[in-house]
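User: Please predict the structure of the protein below. I'd like the answer in structure-token form so I can feed it into my own downstream comparison script.

Assistant: Understood. Taking the following sequence of 251 residues as input:
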Amino acid sequence: MQKRKRELSITFEKIGTSSNVIVILPGWGETKKTFAYMIDHLKRNYTVYIVDYPGFGKNPPLTEEREIEDYAEGVKHFLKQENIKKPVVIAHSFGGRIVSILASQEKEIFEKILLIDVAGIKRRKIIPYLKQMLYKMLKRVAKIMKRKDWEQKLLRAFASPDYQAIPITMRKTFQNIIQKDLKKHYQQITTETLIIWGEKDQDTPLKDAYLLKKIIKNSGLIIYKKASHFSYLENPILTNSILDHFLKKEE
């Protein structure tokens, strides 16, 4: 019998006292600081919740392997625990993965969705794929020859900075997450959705934005010229202005 994993603990900060609620699901490793300007603007008319995932903020690293579905269940439990019903959700990068799962499972869970340079569309790229295969082969050689020093050198040479910065106990979880293709989940979203994307995003390419616009019903797309993966940070005033328009309730 498989042992049931414990519920992931999602910590959060609550700003504001309005009955209108916005939940921010940040990217992998991000904190409240990257959303400070946005939150300062939104708190005038909304109560804003921003979450910290396990392993980030003040939370200890995970000690067991997890999947993206575990994170989604953790956020769902947090919403229920705080009695948050039909909030507007703002998701950046990794946060989009969670939104795709929750919004596809429960159509009425969010009132509106804002996706900013989100992740979850998996594409096989030849060069990264070959690089990964070479890394695995050389790692096996190092293991056979019992050269642990080689393993560390290979990690520094092949692994991304994000991967190297992750605690060792969370690396398998990170691999599980990035290997999951969530296109089918995004495709099932029916909630009104706005997509914001940086034209020069190197982490989640612009073609993903066009794909999401195509497969998500009732969605719109805004592209920030010359912006990167952190398009909302590079265009804070414009982003707040777009948010005001998007959040405006129908008369």
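That's the full token string. The chain has eleven helices and seven strands.
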